[in-house]
Amino acid sequence: MIFLELFLTFFKIGLFTFGGGYAMLPLIQEAVLEKGWLALEEVVNFIAVSESTPGPFAINMATYVGAEVGSAGFTGIESVLTGVFGSFCATLGVVLPSFIIILLVAKIFDKFRKNKVVAGCMKGLKPAVVGLIGAALISIGQTVFFPDGFSWDAFGGVGLWISLAIFAVMCVLSFKKVHPIVVICLSAVVGIVVGFALPLPL
Q1: pLDDT mean by block of 10 residues, the chain; 202 residues
Q2: Helix 116-145 to helix 21-34 angle, to the nearest 10 degrees?
């Protein structure tokens, strides 16, 4: 049953991912592609949508995938209802492990936070999280800029250079401690302006 599969898939993702939504991205991408729920281009597109909408990234992704998969094959009101239930199953699956683990950790962390094993585990997880986020960045960048494999032609297009320029400006703003909401709003404005200036696909 697809709803149970949605729940179990996202429960597993939530259970074995450390570091939040971005660290979940490679696991979400692998799961939805392996099961044929979404195409890679759809995943990349919704990452942009998820980043520009309120709420945690991983929950937005789970909700979207659940809605798409749950409503597949239905029409009318049935499509809406099954989409909502699919969203519920996927979202519950992705948040339930964290909820349970945090409840347990809150009870025992004070007793074990100075334990050498626990401290070592925390130190070991930090670079793993950075690695997962880096892997997601490379995968998405390859899909957007080099969909047919590495080619020097990509460096002649304006899309890559605009993205790099926006990234550089946002890095400077972040380094100068500009509030994240300001950075997000500026990114949206720049994206809209670029979209009107370059209406064709980059």
Answers
A1: 90 78 76 84 75 76 88 87 92 90 77 73 76 73 67 65 75 78 76 68 46
A2: 60
Q: Name the amino acid, one letter, at 33.
A: L
Say what the alpha-carbon torsion angle 28, 12, 21, 88 is, to the nearest 10 degrees: 90
Please enumerate in sequence order all residues whose Cβ is within 8 A of that of 163, keeping only pairs 6 or more positions apart, or say none: 144, 145
Give the number of other Cβ atoms within 10 Å of residue 28's Cβ. 25
Residues 1, 85 contacting (CB under 8 angstroms):
no
Query: In angstroms, how far is the first alpha carbon of the chain from the final one?
Result: 40
Q: φ, ψ for residue 16 (rounded to 5)?
A: -110, 15
The reported pLDDT for the residue numbered 93 is 92
The answer to whether the beta carbons of residues 66 and 87 sit under 8 Å apart is yes
Structural domain spans, the chain = 2-147, 151-202
User: Cα dist. 177→51, 145, 169, 192 in Å?
Assistant: 20, 29, 13, 24
